[in-house]
Every structure is written in structure tokens, then in C-alpha cells.
Amino acid sequence: MNYRHSFHAGNFADLVKHALLLDLMARLQQDRPLTVIDTHAGRGLYDLSGDGARSREAEAGIARLMSADALPPELARLADAVRTRNAGDTVRWYPGSPVLVAERLRPGDAYRGFELRPEEAEALTATLALWSAAAASEADGYEAAPGVLPTDGSVLVLIDPPFERPDDYRRAVEAARAIRSRRPDAVIAIWLPIKDAETLDAFVRGLEAARLTGLMAECRLRPLANPMKMNGCAVALIGAPHGAETSARSIVEWVATTLGEPGGRGEVWGF
Length: 271
What we know:
By secondary structure, this protein is α/β, with parallel strands linked by helices. It has eleven helices and ten strands. Helix content is 39%, strand content 20%.
């Protein structure tokens, strides 16, 4: 995949990923301080009047979410976060995971975002300057994340690679395994595209071989008939807190049913 997130910001996959991220964060903030680590953070905030206007993916994603009459509470939370940065329900600015997290940090919480592309890392640093507890680093998040795990408090790690390279699937699993070996209680969310069934199955086999267990929140917009298209997305949840399965199901079912084509579906299953 030739990936540049500014073209895809606010699409259906972002809705799934970011609604789940906000739900997990809210659940983990109920008691202890929370550290959120973002392995592929991007620039943090996206102007949908630029690249997004050319791809038109946001029109089929966040624009439809904002105009929906009724939303599940998990997606309503995301809509509210987007609305605060825009005029009414017209969306020009879409917040990525760094901004969504930074805005919700409490005293004692922290955010660490890693980005390998120099220009994106520079933009991320500027975006996060408003929040003293949020920091950006130009680094390979796969390698960096296990080394910045705190020794106490709750930990949430988002692994959201661009899947430009064939080893992204393998490295995502290896990073998750390294994180859980150091912090067995860490909550990890791994986002991935769904193009064909075999690639998804191979990824799950990799998780199982690494002795990682959890839930797969799967959102298919259409049957997997054309492997050249991104037909859906999934988020592998490792160590998810109580109640997250219900929220994940609500999110993927709404997105698949409302934004998908006939034959699409949303479901949550264990691995």
C-alpha cells in the first residue's frame, strides 16, 4: 500500500480505530494514571480541505458520521471530539490519535508518540506543543515503544503502521510481544487493513504463535472479492479491559451497517 495518511484521514477505518481508542482510554482512566504510547503517530491533525478533498474518503467516513441522526455512545464521543475543532457539523479539521489522546490527559497521565517520517514528526511536535504531558519523537515506533513503558500505572499502546512494507504484520506482532513481556498488563490495540481473508488469517496465526490472545474487532464494508481494495479493517485488542468487547461490537456493527455495502458485516471474535 502506498500510504499517506492525509489522503485517508477521517475515513471509515479512522472511525473504527479512533472510537475504539477513546473507549479504551476512558475505561483505563477510571483509577490509575495512564500512559498512552503511539507507535505510528502521524502529524496529529489533518486538514481535510487538502489531500483529503482529493481522495474524498472523509466524505464517506467522518462526514457521514457527523450527519447521522443517532449514534452509539462510542461514536458520539468521537463526533463530539471532531465537532470541537470545526464549525457545526462541517468538518475541515480531523484530529488524529495524538490530539484525541492529548486533549484527554489528566494530571499524571502521559502520551508518547513516535513517527519515523521526519516531516510528519516535525509537524507532530508542533501540534503537541499545547500539552506538556504529550511528547513526540522521530523514531521507529516498533523499536522505541517497549523501551518507554512506565513501571507503574496503566498502559495503552496503539500500533497503527501504514502497512507499506510486507514485514509490518510481523513487526507489529513482535512489538506487541516485546511490550507484553515487559508489561504483562499492558493493553494493546493493533490496527490493520483487511484486503483478503488469507492475510488476516496469517496475521492471527502470528499472534497465536507469539502466545498473544485477545479480541478481534472486524469491520468489513463489503465481501472480500477484490484483494486490490481495502475492503475493511480490524483492530486486534490484547488485554482489553472489561466492557471493551461490547463497545467494540457496537462500533464495528454501526460502521459496517451504515457505511458499508451489501454483504458487509461487523463482528468481534476471540483469538
